[in-house]
Amino acid sequence: MVGQCGLVIPIKSTDKQLLAFISDYCDKYGFSPSVRDISRHFGYSSPSTVHAKLVRLREMGLVAFNDGMMRTVRVVNHGEERRG
pLDDT, tens digit, for every residue of 17-50? Predict the structure, then answer.
């Protein structure tokens, strides 16, 4: 994956799994998973772990979400404009 400034950023397998879960969840239910949904699915005991992962993925340009709003996380498609 190529990040801002043209730097190559490796994507961890856990990141790929998280992106796939978000995408599959949206396809299945028609809306984004909550942080708690993600925590339960991956067995994290703290929602802050998920939030930190989502923030990192947003910084990489792979997901977008609105701070303070529930169920807004979405995987950013390559053709979609990336918003910070």
Answer: 999 999 999 999 999 999 999 999 999 999 999 9
Rounded CA separation 33/81 (Å)? 21
Structural domains in the chain, sorted by start:
6-75 (1.10.10.10)
Burial state string for 13-49 with b = 16 or more CB within 10 A and e = fewer than 16: eebeebbebbeebbeeeeebbbbebbbeeeeeeeeee
User: Which backbone phi and psi does 31 adopt, to 5 degrees?
Assistant: -150, 165
DSSP 50: H
